[in-house]
Amino acid sequence: AAQVKLHIDHGYDAVLRGMRGENPPGVLLDHRGKKMRSVDEGDTLHFTLTELLNAVGIESLDSPNTAGAVAESVGSPTYFRGADISQARRRGAAGAPAARP
């Protein structure tokens, strides 16, 4: 199966220090503060979608998303299907745009 890969370059300006540049060196930490990897100056960050989700504490897009529940929810939606449902609501049941109240 194909994986989604993200490549991230970023610039920075530290005006008070008179510094600017691109892709500074650093250490990437996950949501628990555990070191994921070190990054050398000038290196582009590379992540698969799975790595990025795991870094923020999501094991799978099929995992329950307890923060995504709303008043009409029955149980906890998943990360992926929760987004699917809200898109379907916006389009309306037949795929046409939903009427605005």
Largest sheet: 2 strands, antiparallel
Q: Whole-Å distance between the termini?
A: 42 Å
Q: What spatial order of strands do you see in the largest sheet?
A: 1-6
- The helicity comes to 10-25%
Which descriptor suits the 3D outline? elongated
Beta percentage is 15-25%
Tally of DSSP β-strands = 6
Order of helices and strands: EEEEEEHH
**Which regions have little confidence, pLDDT < 50, spanning 5+ residues?**
93-101
On the 0-100 scale, what is the average pLDDT? 77
Give a structural overview:
By secondary structure, the chain is an alpha+beta fold. About 20% of the residues lie in helices and about 25% in strands. The chain has 2 helices and 6 strands. It has helices at about 50-55, 80-90, and strands at about 5-10, 10-15, 20, 25-30, 35-40, 45-50. The strands form 3 sheets. The protein has a two-stranded antiparallel ribbon with strand order 1-6. Strands 2-3 form a two-stranded antiparallel ribbon. A two-stranded antiparallel ribbon has the order 4-5. The chain is elongated and about 55 Å long.
List the helices and strands and how they pair.
Blueprint: E1 5-8, E2 11-14, E3 19-22, E4 26-29, E5 35-39, E6 45-48, H1 49-55, H2 79-91
Antiparallel strand pairs: 1-6, 2-3, 4-5
